[in-house]
Design brief:
Layout: H1 6-11, H2 18-25, H3 57-63
Length: 64
C-alpha cells in the first residue's frame, strides 16, 4: 500500500485516460472485470498521447 496526499488523490483522475475512467465507472464495488480480469481490463486503451489536454503528472506540476 502507498499513502498519497489528498491533492495527489484528487489530481489522479485528471491525468487518466477518459476511456479507462468510463470503463471503471460501470464496475460496482468489489466487481471484477470480465474477459481476462484486471490484467487485460484497461490494457487496450491505457496509452493516451500526452498533449496539453492530457498532461503527465510532471508537466502538470511544472505549470503549477
Amino acid at each position: 500500500m502507498r499513502c498519497v496526499s489528498f491533492k495527489q488523490l484528487v489530481d489522479w483522475p485528471d491525468v487518466q485516460n477518459p476511456l479507462v475512467l468510463e470503463k471503471l465507472r460501470v464496475l460496482d464495488v468489489g466487481m471484477r472485470p470480465s474477459g481476462g480480469g484486471w490484467k487485460r481490463y484497461p490494457a487496450a486503451e491505457s496509452a493516451v498521447p500526452r498533449t496539453p489536454e492530457h498532461p503527465t503528472h510532471t508537466a502538470k506540476r511544472e505549470r503549477e
